[in-house]
Amino acid sequence: MLNGKRVLLIIGGGIAAYKTPELVRLIRKAGGHVRVILTKAASEFVTPLTLASLTGEKVHEALFSLTDEIEMGHIELSRSADLLVVAPATADLMAKAAHGLANDLASTTLLATDKPVLMAPAMNVRMWLHPATQRNLATLRADGVSFVGPDEGDMACGEYGPGRMAEPAAILAAIEAHVARDTAPKPLAGKHVLITAGPTHEPIDPVRYIANRSSGKQGYALAEAAREAGARVTLVSGPGTLPAPIGIRTIRVETAREMDEAVEQALPADIAIFAAAVADWRVADESKEKRKKDGNAIPPLQLTENPDILARIARHATQRPRLVVGFAAETEKVLEHAQAKFARKGCDLLVANDVSPASGVMGGDRNRVHLVSPEGVESLPDMTKNDVATALIARFADALARRG
Length: 404
Ligand code: C5P
What we know:
This protein is 35% helix and 24% strand.
């Protein structure tokens, strides 16, 4: 239920605009309040009068309307909403929003808003699949815009494929999910959560390094789940291809020693989660020049131990976070090794997982974890890394609350 939430509906100029009166009706039936911005092209498909009748509000069409600016300017329009919904989000509107163009009321409002934006794309299948649109989609996603649809099916232009606007009921469900997320309890509000993620790279010489197969996905998912729980999050990330999550201070490092330094700088924290696959060893005699093949002698690699960041922070004399969580990536005897590690590292909780090649965990999207605590072991079912993150963060929030 939308409980009086205010939706600003921006209707783009596509044939799917004919479905927006139904969307307005559904939002209002669910208890939401709707204001409408209609682009010039959209008014060819759906009339302002229909929408004004359904919303009980004036429909906004022009950027430079004297009466509108006196009653409610475009900035005020976006301020007074809880959520902006763009439906149909045409290729043109997506492109404008992705590039920050502001040459009509719809695009100007999208640029001026600091509210969440949900888009329901609708366009011809080739337009949707065009690299330009896909680039714009990726840009908008990275900017924090959410999407519902498009669906696959027969299109008004006679073609078949992805590009149909999601049905009004599906758009309403996406709006409700947004609102539910916004109004969900925030058990980590006001808390600072520090998370390490990804692998480390330990240089051998200027062009070579020792690495591991960690993708950072689980750590990044934890960072996002902590943010959703209301925390301020610092993510210290080793090298990888994942984009920095929205709204999270992300510090990128290469080596274990850089990670150690960045973690120290990020203190104090209420919770510290060490999900990174830190290299246990680095090359002791890192060469300043590229090592050369010289004759038959194979160069020996002299290794030395890296700082154990988790163990150090768990025993920090002055700034130990109230909850310190370690990870144990094992390829065999997972629980046995995890319990030994739990005792050794000095952390409060330890998350164990099986990273043997057969498990598909390293680099994959799913994970099965066991949470080791002084009370015992809780084994969670196989889930996506996002679901694992949400489940773990809920438990960490509980554990922090119990510590007072
Ligand atoms: O000893 P091991 O590497 O298996 O320990 C894993 C746990 O310790 C993980 O939480 C990992 O992030 C952390 N760790 C660390 N610094 C290291 C090695 C591991 O923080 N040098």
